[in-house]
Design a protein that fits this description.
By secondary structure, the protein is of the alpha/beta class. It is built from 13 helices and 15 strands. About 35% of the residues lie in helices and about 25% in strands.
């Protein structure tokens, strides 16, 4: 579907600033953005016009890290730290996905909420179970959204009911998932998903890395999130220089790897992430809720590491990625105040960039309205935020980000295709 959409346009080409075009036109041709204009060029005059005058028009947001099976219990167990939270909340809940009826009900809730949200692309974790993960992917595929889904792999330090009994069995199940998902789905592609080093043996990781290479699949996992977890990794991988090095020795780090968190990266780890082209999914809400800490995002950015945002539901309590944008800014202010005055707080524009073009790069040419970018677009009705004073489009966009709960996503396109809201 080719179209022109008119509205108050706001997007990000560079982290330093927002680009805004009041009453502008964004043109979609063959699913791709042909450009943004303040007057519509004659050559596009014959295209159908969608008039969203007075509403905000932005690129869809990219959630680089979210756990689909944890959506159903978001907001619970928030007084715990990571390892206890996994043992008492996440693992028991995820074990229920052996039951396809339960999985169907819960995944419908997740996919419906994602469809209606400001997010257009996501990289998500499912559970260990191949049938339930295929069911989730089927539902996501039907939603019109795009992204990656991972069948979770884990073969140690997990309860028996949520553990692959051997590395071989874990690799076999992963391969079955990769094969079936590659055959059946187009818009959601399978990702290799070792849960994290504490739950994955070296042998399992090695075999998973080979599968990722063989199937051209991305890799997603967790890195340096929590101090107890990091201690555990040190004892499990005594030869590794660091947590990131443990993954690297097992062949897991590359430009198609996304690692959630990096709250406590050492300098060598930051260098390694940069060298390998790994994307970090910064998940500030989760880092606060389960008391992991404050990720040194400014340090990562200064070193040239790619950083996007993740909701990390249910460590994070909401899939609303605007919340991740403002949480990222707020957390960085505390980091500057309490930890290191050399690391300036993130600006809203930098955090918005991470949620759009920055994180979008993990999915392709996604997250901007520059020509050639896939046409992921949301229309935001900010009429719920009335104001007596005149506000620029940029100011309205700022408020919409901080007060996203008071705005409505009224229209959404992914790669030029309309999404039913
Ligand atoms: N580390 C390993 N598994 C998880 C998980 O489910 N959530 C978070 N936040 N961290 C993890
Ligand atoms: Fe996570």
């Amino acid at each position: 579907m080719d179209f022109v959409l008119r509205g108050d346009i706001c997007y990000s080409e560079r982290p330093e600033r927002l680009t805004t075009v009041p009453g502008g036109y964004v043109v979609c041709a063959d699913g791709v953005c042909a450009g943004v204009f303040d007057t519509l060029p004659e050559r596009y005059a014959a295209l159908p016009l969608i008039d969203e005058s007075g509403r905000l028009v932005m690129p869809g947001l990219c959630d680089l890290h979210v756990h689909a099976p944890q959506f159903a219990y978001r907001g619970l167990g928030m007084d715990l730290e990571l390892l206890e939270w996994l043992a008492t909340r996440a693992f028991p809940e995820e074990s229920k996905y052996a039951d396809l009826d339960y999985a169907g009900l819960a995944y419908d809730l997740f996919v419906d909420a994602m469809r209606k949200s400001a997010t257009t692309r996501l990289s998500c974790f499912a559970t260990l179970h191949v049938p339930a993960t295929l069911l989730l992917t089927e539902k996501l595929e039907k939603s019109g959204l795009r992204g990656f889904v991972g069948k979770v792999s884990m073969d140690r330090n997990a309860p028996e009911f949520l553990c692959e009994c051997s590395a071989e069995r874990g690799a076999k199940d992963c391969e079955k998932w990769l094969r079936e998902a590659s055959d059946r789905f187009i818009q959601f592609r399978p990702a290799v998903t070792p849960r994290f080093i504490p739950a994955c043996s070296d042998e399992l990781c090695r075999q998973l890395a080979n599968l990722a290479a063989e199937y051209g699949a991305p890799v997603q996992s967790h890195l340096s999130e929590n101090l107890e977890e990091i201690k555990l990794v040190r004892t499990l991988c005594p030869d590794a220089q660091s947590y990131a090095d443990a993954y690297d020795r097992l062949g897991m780090l590359g430009p198609r790897t996304v690692m959630a968190h990096a709250v406590y990266p050492e300098d060598e780890e930051i260098e390694l992430l940069k060298t390998r082209g790994v994307t970090v999914a910064h998940c500030p809400a989760s880092n606060m809720n389960i008391r992991s800490g404050i990720a040194p995002v400014r340090k990562l950015l200064r070193a040239g590491v790619r950083v996007g945002l993740g909701s990390d539901v249910a460590g994070g309590q909401t899939i609303d990625l605007f919340r991740a944008v403002t949480d990222a800014v707020q957390a960085s202010k505390l980091y500057w105040r309490l930890v290191d005055k050399n690391d300036l707080a993130l600006t809203l524009s930098e955090a918005f960039y991470m949620a759009t073009k920055g994180g979008g790069a993990f999915f392709g040419r996604v997250g901007s309205f520059e020509p050639g970018y896939e046409m992921d677009l949301i229309v935001l009705d900010d009429a719920g935020l009335p104001h007596p004073q005149a506000l620029s489009v940029e100011e309205r966009a700022q408020r919409a980000m901080y007060l996203s709960g008071e705005c409505a996503v009224t229209r959404k396109f992914v790669a030029g295709q309309p999404i039913e809201l």
